[in-house]
């Protein structure tokens, strides 16, 4: 079989090439020709097409994402910012944490189990490639309506995929979200987050310096998985072709990934790695171009040396394969023997496939012929950048004008609470989370249904200091809020994740995000994206938490129907003494219950409007970031002083749901009155910047004083105890009834 | 007096080894890492086979681990009375190695289950349960996809009549185990296997909302110190 070599390309300049089929635009193809001064070989075309795809190049989002850098608040904690595999933050006592969230949306629709599983695998390798031990995962999931038939196909598969892969890897799943809305029926969202731990002086970067150093491919062998996955699945909708493209989804092997984790950690410990990169989207293409571009600048690779699972693979396919559980390292010749010995100990295949050069060119050969000869930076960094046009959607003003004020409010608030509590978005997610191992590694302090997950820092790492610290993590996103106002919606997502971390007693430190949107080629979607990024960047600045990295997922749409814009925001926080963590809900009888924060009448995009009236209109709650910051400061100080016995943030469903969940948490009832006269507003409004806490009666004054110092309103609502949730003059509901309604909803749908 | 030494085995794909070692240390014993590929028990006084997905659960849970070089040392030592505890995947390995009868199959509900499970101590006379009382109710986490204990009728009857059922699930069987069996012991009472995870219930701060798992480790320690 002839190989499309550089020599052949020079001899056949007019050969027609399938750039369009590979998702490349005409002008992009012309640019490649200009860069190379000839037509690309088919292997070079494969590289450019995947590296310049939306998924790898961020070509439509880049101009907006820059704000996360230019508006970033000063943060002494930030050790590695955006642009690397994941951001790294200083968490004290010589330790650093690295975390990131990433989407695997389209594959999870095509093949829910493998799509979700490999989503977990991919983000875990990102964390590993920073030099860290992955210590926990969480997932933010969005599905179509809970009772829509396709949701019964997609949800169980996604949950099983995450469960199988994550559990097999031995990473505790400590939180996340599950939400339903018909807008996601053809485009479910599977956003996977991983956090890792490393010593501050141990950070690894994706770089290939030092001519003569060896390039090692290790982990699973390369097969036909996901060929074209990166560009095909991420650069166009696939409504009529999902059958045809099914093989494009990758298949994961968590056992190999577990071996890779332990192998990598031993390699780091032995200090035999100069640079490292995981193989994700665009596989060998991405790893070689990025490593070379960030290093000395050149690399030579013999593609025949890539170990194959399928010996019939062509070089183009090897370059595009997205086979899972692979890593690429740069190793000095002196360390190669030690490197290989460690891989052998862990039964991880490893092969030297090339070396670093100072030629400034990435050169690859196949059967002795040169098939790739490019400046690596042109593929890795100099992809196209688009200033896509955007404008406010035609119906936006009408949507905002159709507020929830006209909706009738039931006078039976007991019934309203139970209806909301048993609705799929607010119901207990135990059906999902009980399929995840939340205990493995023995460091889980808080996990679902707590507001944030928390793990203590206790890892056996040579040279590591003992510490009492812990980290807390939460993700949040509300597509309905963002649909009504993407600027405020993104801020509200950040505010809630930030608040979730704060109620555990931790101090929020840094942000990761996964921006899920429709097609960037639609100016109305692009407006949503521009507004959301602007809102998030502004909010990060005010809250003092920098964005450390993340991921953009476009083309979440079927035909012209895009999903609600869904920015999912993850916040990482630190608690100095993990023993002072605040548990979720009402933890004992006889405690005083207090509501922190002011309640306004805000029902736009609320769960009540959604569940009771199937209504979406008006404006979302106000994102008052100054209030949010004050609340977090109170919660951190109160936790450090040991004032708080239990807490819960207020969000979807308002005070009513927070009270109900707080009672259900430990089976402790409460008797409370409402902070404002209008019981309906008091119970169900979704005003942000609020939290529920319970304290020993004698600590109440100290709490109120603390709140005063930070200008946070503090309302004593009542006391915990008994077997019912009693709201004075409104209703009295046994905790058992609340629990049955809350936990029964998802099993009734999914079995 | 030197501390009792408890070996903690790591196979490729073992996951709870760090937790197992921590639980051993918290009880005051020395945790000795044992590697699957070495035929060396390092002179330990007892062995803990922790949970995980050894060899990716390929073929059948525990089926490949059974043939690990370390097992060539462990199996005869266990037959000679070495105390051995297997939890979750460790239990599966003990069954595959025929140190315990029966087998663990896919959960009846077909889903992986992670929950805090009420468990009854049925036999408090084994090497690993002496610090409990017969009939005592404890809470331990379960987390597995293949934990349904099955055995033929004669084996079940023997286990029951000989008092070799060590733990039974209470308040809802998480996996469809026959006779609600959560754990069993060998004839001599030195080998114990169970699906729940005592090592995840030894600290107030982390893991399950109980410290009921501590008894396993205090039991073995007392036995070894008094031996």
From TrEMBL, chain A:
Residues annotated to bind Mg(2+) 2: 126, 278
Pathway membership, UniProt: Purine metabolism; IMP biosynthesis via de novo pathway; 5-amino-1-(5-phospho-D-ribosyl)imidazole from N(2)-formyl-N(1)-(5-phospho-D-ribosyl)glycinamide: step 1/2
Tagged with keyword ATP-binding: yes
Superkingdom as given in the UniProt entry: Bacteria
Biological processes, Gene Ontology terms: 'de novo' IMP biosynthetic process
Domain PurM-like C-terminal: from-to ranges: 210-366, 589-723
GO cellular component labels: cytoplasm
Binding site for Mg(2+) 1: 102, 551
Active site: 55, 104 (proton acceptor)
CDD domains: PurL_repeat1, PurL_repeat2
Positions of transmembrane segments: none
Domain Phosphoribosylformylglycinamidine synthase linker: 20-59
Residue ranges of every copy of the PurM-like N-terminal domain listed in the record: 83-197, 451-575
Keywords, sorted A to Z: ATP-binding, Cytoplasm, Ligase, Magnesium, Metal-binding, Nucleotide-binding, Purine biosynthesis
Reactions catalysed, as given in the entry: N(2)-formyl-N(1)-(5-phospho-beta-D-ribosyl)glycinamide + L-glutamine + ATP + H2O = 2-formamido-N(1)-(5-O-phospho-beta-D-ribosyl)acetamidine + L-glutamate + ADP + phosphate + H(+)
One Pfam family here: AIRS
Enzyme Commission number(s): 6.3.5.3
Biological function: Part of the phosphoribosylformylglycinamidine synthase complex involved in the purines biosynthetic pathway. Catalyzes the ATP-dependent conversion of formylglycinamide ribonucleotide (FGAR) and glutamine to yield formylglycinamidine ribonucleotide (FGAM) and glutamate. The FGAM synthase complex is composed of three subunits. PurQ produces an ammonia molecule by converting glutamine to glutamate. PurL transfers the ammonia molecule to FGAR to form FGAM in an ATP-dependent manner.
Family: Belongs to the FGAMS family.
Subunit structure: Monomer. Part of the FGAM synthase complex composed of 1 PurL, 1 PurQ and 2 PurS subunits.
Protein name per the record: Phosphoribosylformylglycinamidine synthase subunit PurL
From TrEMBL, chain B:
The protein's name in its UniProt record: Phosphoribosylformylglycinamidine synthase subunit PurQ
Pfam families (alphabetical): GATase_5 (PF13507)
UniProt-listed NCBIfam families: FGAM_synth_I (TIGR01737), PRK03619.1 (NF002957)
Keywords recorded for this protein, A-Z: ATP-binding, Cytoplasm, Glutamine amidotransferase, Hydrolase, Ligase, Nucleotide-binding, Purine biosynthesis
Compartment(s): Cytoplasm
UniProt xrefs under PROSITE patterns: GATASE_TYPE_1
Active site per UniProt: 88, 197, 199
BP GO annotations: 'de novo' IMP biosynthetic process
Pathway: Purine metabolism; IMP biosynthesis via de novo pathway; 5-amino-1-(5-phospho-D-ribosyl)imidazole from N(2)-formyl-N(1)-(5-phospho-D-ribosyl)glycinamide: step 1/2
Domain of life: Bacteria
CDD domains xref list: GATase1_FGAR_AT (cd01740)
Molecular function GO terms recorded: ATP binding; glutaminase activity; phosphoribosylformylglycinamidine synthase activity
Role summary: Part of the phosphoribosylformylglycinamidine synthase complex involved in the purines biosynthetic pathway. Catalyzes the ATP-dependent conversion of formylglycinamide ribonucleotide (FGAR) and glutamine to yield formylglycinamidine ribonucleotide (FGAM) and glutamate. The FGAM synthase complex is composed of three subunits. PurQ produces an ammonia molecule by converting glutamine to glutamate. PurL transfers the ammonia molecule to FGAR to form FGAM in an ATP-dependent manner.
Gene: purQ
């Amino acid at each position: 079989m002839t190989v499309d070599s550089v020599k052949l390309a020079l001899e056949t300049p007019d050969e027609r090439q399938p750039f369009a089929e590979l998702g490349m635009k005409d002008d992009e193809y012309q640019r490649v020709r200009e860069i190379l001064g000839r037509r690309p070989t088919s292997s070079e075309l494969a590289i450019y097409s995947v590296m310049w795809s939306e998924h790898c190049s961020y070509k439509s989002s880049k101009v907006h994402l820059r704000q996360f850098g230019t508006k970033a608040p000063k943060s002494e904690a930030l050790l590695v910012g955006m642009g690397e595999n994941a951001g790294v933050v200083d968490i004290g006592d010589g330790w650093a944490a690295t975390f990131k969230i990433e989407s695997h949306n389209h594959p999870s629709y095509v093949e829910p189990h493998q799509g979700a599983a490999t989503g977990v695998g991919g983000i875990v390798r990102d964390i590993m490639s920073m030099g860290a031990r992955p210590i926990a995962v969480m997932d933010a999931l969005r599905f179509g309506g809970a009772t829509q038939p396709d949701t019964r196909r997609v949800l169980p598969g996604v949950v099983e995929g995450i469960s199988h892969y994550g559990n097999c890897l031995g990473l505790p799943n400590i939180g996340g979200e599950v939400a339903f809305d018909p807008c996601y029926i053809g485009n479910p969202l599977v956003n996977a987050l991983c956090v890792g731990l490393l010593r501050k002086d141990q950070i690894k970067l994706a770089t290939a310096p030092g001519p003569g150093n060896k390039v090692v491919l290790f982990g699973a062998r390369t097969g036909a998985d996901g060929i074209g996955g990166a560009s095909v699945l991420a650069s166009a909708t696939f409504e009529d072709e999902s059958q045809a493209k099914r093989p494009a989804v990758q298949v994961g092997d968590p056992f190999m990934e577990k071996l890779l984790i332990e192998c990598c950690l031993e390699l780091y410990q032995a200090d035999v790695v100069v640079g490292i990169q995981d193989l994700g989207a665009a596989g060998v293409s991405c790893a070689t171009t990025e490593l070379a571009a960030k290093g000395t600048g050149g690399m030579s690779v013999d593609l025949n040396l890539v170990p194959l699972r399928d010996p019939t693979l062509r070089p183009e396919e090897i370059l595009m394969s997205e086979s899972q559980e692979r890593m690429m390292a740069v190793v000095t010749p002196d360390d190669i023997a030690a490197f290989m010995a460690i891989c052998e100990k862990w039964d991880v295949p490893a092969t030297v496939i090339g070396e670093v050069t100072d030629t400034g060119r990435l050169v690859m050969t196949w059967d002795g012929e040169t098939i790739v000869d490019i400046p690596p930076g042109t593929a890795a960094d100099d992809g196209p950048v688009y200033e896509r046009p955007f404008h406010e959607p035609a119906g936006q003003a009408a949507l905002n004008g159709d507020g929830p004020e006209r909706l009738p409010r039931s006078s039976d608030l007991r019934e309203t609470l139970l209806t909301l509590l048993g609705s799929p978005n607010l119901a207990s997610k135990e059906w999902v989370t009980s399929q995840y191992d939340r205990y493995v590694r023995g460091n889980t302090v808080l996990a679902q249904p707590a507001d944030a997950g928390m793990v203590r820092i206790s890892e056996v790492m040579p040279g590591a200091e003992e510490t009492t610290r812990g980290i807390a993590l939460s993700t949040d996103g509300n597509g309905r809020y963002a649909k009504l106002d993407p600027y405020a919606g993104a801020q509200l997502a950040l505010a809630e994740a930030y608040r979730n971390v704060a109620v555990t007693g931790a101090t929020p430190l840094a942000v990761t995000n996964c921006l899920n949107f429709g097609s960037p080629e639609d100016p109305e979607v692009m407006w949503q994206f521009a507004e959301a990024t602007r809102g998030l960047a502004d909010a990060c600045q005010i809250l003092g938490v920098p964005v450390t990295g993340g991921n953009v997922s476009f083309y979440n749409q079927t035909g012209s129907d895009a999903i609600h814009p869904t920015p999912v925001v993850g916040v990482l926080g630190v608690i100095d003494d993990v023993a002072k963590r605040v548990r979720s809900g009402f933890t004992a009888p006889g405690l005083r219950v207090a509501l922190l924060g002011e309640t306004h009448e805000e029902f736009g995009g609320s769960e009540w409007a959604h569940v009771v009236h199937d209504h979406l209109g008006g404006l979302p709650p106000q994102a008052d970031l100054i209030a949010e910051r004050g609340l977090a400061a109170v919660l951190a100080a109160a936790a450090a002083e040991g004032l708080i016995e239990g807490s819960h943030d207020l969000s979807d469903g308002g005070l009513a749901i927070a009270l109900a969940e707080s009672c259900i948490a430990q089976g402790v009832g409460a008797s409370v009155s409402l902070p404002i006269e209008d019981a309906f507003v008091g119970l169900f409004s979704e005003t942000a910047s609020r939290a529920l806490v319970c304290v020993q009666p004698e600590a109440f004054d100290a709490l109120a004083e603390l709140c005063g110092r930070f200008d946070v309103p503090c309302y004593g609502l009542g006391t915990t105890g008994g077997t019912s949730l009693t709201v004075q003059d409104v209703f009295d509901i046994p905790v058992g009834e609340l629990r049955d309604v809350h936990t029964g909803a998802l099993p009734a749908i999914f079995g | 007096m030197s501390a009792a030494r408890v070996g903690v085995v790591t196979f490729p794909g073992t996951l709870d080894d760090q937790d197992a070692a921590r639980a051993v240390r918290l009880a005051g014993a020395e945790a000795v890492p044992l590697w699957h590929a070495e035929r060396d028990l390092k002179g330990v006084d007892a062995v803990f086979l922790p949970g995980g997905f050894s060899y990716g659960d390929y073929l059948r849970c525990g089926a490949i681990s059974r043939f690990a070089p370390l097992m060539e040392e462990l199996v005869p030592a266990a037959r000679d009375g070495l105390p051995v505890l297997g939890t979750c995947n460790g239990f599966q390995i003990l069954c595959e190695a025929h140190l315990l009868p029966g087998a663990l199959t896919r959960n009846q509900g077909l889903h992986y289950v992670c929950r805090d499970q009420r468990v009854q101590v049925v036999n408090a006379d084994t090497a690993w349960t002496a610090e409990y009382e017969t009939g005592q109710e404890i809470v331990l986490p379960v987390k597995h996809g293949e934990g349904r204990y099955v055995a033929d009728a004669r084996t079940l009857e023997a286990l029951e009549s000989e008092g070799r059922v060590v733990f039974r699930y209470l308040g809802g069987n998480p996996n469809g185990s026959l006779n609600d069996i959560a754990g069993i012991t060998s004839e001599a009472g030195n080998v114990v296997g169970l699906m729940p995870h005592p090592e995840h219930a030894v600290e107030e701060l982390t893991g399950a909302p109980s410290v009921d798992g501590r008894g396993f480790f205090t039991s073995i320690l007392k036995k070894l110190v008094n031996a």
